[in-house]
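To whoever is on call:

I kicked off a structure prediction for a single chain this morning and the downstream step that reads the tokens threw a length-mismatch warning. I double-checked the sequence; it's 355 residues and nothing unusual in it as far as I can see. Pasting both halves so you can look.
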Amino acid sequence: MNPYQSLPRRSFWRSAVAEPDMLAVGELWTPKFTIGPDDPVLTAGSCFARHIGPALLEHGMNWREVELPPPGLTAAERRARHYGTFSFRTGNIYTAAALRQWLSWALDDVAAPDEIWSEGGRFFDPYRPAVDPDGHPSAEAALAARQVTLAAIRNAIVEAGCLIFTLGLTEAWQDRDAGTVYPVCPGTRHGTFDADRHIFRNFTVAEVHRDLSVAVALARTVNPRLTVLLTVSPVPLTATATGEHALTATTYSKSVLRAAAGQLAQEFEYVDYFPSYEIVTGFPFRGVFFAPNLRTVTSEGVDFVMRHFFDAIERRAAGAGPLPRTGTRPTRPTEASDGGDLLCDDAVLDYYNAG
């Protein structure tokens, strides 16, 4: 006997990935904790995360949008002002450092900077410059609007059951003096770039893990019951400031985020990882869920991801686990089952695949 003889079909590449039709690949996620239909769920993160909240709501789950739009706005105006996109009007939170920053301002009595950008007589918040596309009439109004969002974050975290956070990037621009990170490079969406002040950062696994750990600890300080579900956006980088090719820079970024999220999920029972990144970009799916620009995830791709999510949540709620294996193979294999894998030492493990 050896440990591979009792593994389920989903543990083997051939039976779990290579042989099934790509739409039949399943059991990609076994949730560590339940998310019930009445549990308040918050969503935040990169641009891919904007799909999650509305999908939860449509499925009958208790997604919380804690900053509601004022009356009179059209649907287009609500979207442009980031209503109905995430639980809070923070705009996209691409990095773990930015999540830590927002939660520190909202939950830890850390004073947010009073920096405001002025352009054409209007005033913009550097830490969410896209949330109010027309800006504010004064710097004071911009800062007051941020305080509304910080209060909403605090109130929502205190009452939440689960926070779903989607990691998007490792690259960010940081204020050299204040140490704060921006969601986009100054000068690209409002503001003015200052090479002496604005420095480029490409966070490491250790740094992402540190920032995630602090962010989760902050949230659970005010709500010890909170669970956190991490995921990684499958959307590649639009551009990289590293000087590398966009493809290799994307690989670095997503690998770092995936590793840090996975490590945190291993360390804490109240943190889990959902594989939206793998579901879209994995080998068996052959890139079919990307639009022709090879970056935008199609609506079919979003639906496919959420189908896996809801299927797993419902299995968890029903108490269903993986199917048991029956039967063993008493003799040891003498050669790899696939001649093309003869140079791969671990190819012998497919012998124990009963599928």
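Update from on-call: the warning came from a stale cache, not from the record. Cleared it. Sanity check on the structure: Strands lie at 41-45, 117-119, 122-124, 162-167, 171-175, 181-182, 198-202, 227-232, 271-273.
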